[in-house]
Amino acid sequence: RCGSFFIDYILVVAVPVLGLVFSLLIDDNPAKASNNTTWLIAFLVGISDLIIFPALSGQTLGMMICGLRIVTPDGRDASAGRVILRNTAGYLLTAITFGVGFLMAAVTPTRRALHDYVSGTMVVYGRKRRL
Known about the structure:
elongated
């Protein structure tokens, strides 16, 4: 799970970083280097990876690469509504607890984090999807 999280994080953060580097190569003024288009693209990539892809397939890009998927506790594919609840309100609650919600996955027998309990989901090893 940590590996897939870091892959997703790198993907989302890479867009504004690459946009900043590209802007600095074109214009030497660092104050003008950050532009709205770069941030819009970063926002769309983030929404796609953290909400749209998981709602449609049960996997973020990081989960696809690591072979993980979001399912219900009985093993069925999680509905789009459950996944959206998990990745929005569930992550918000986990953030409010300063990450303690993530640590729950390390100590609970079912390896479920706070956002999994909130949405009635869990993360399991599933088949990898080709990108």
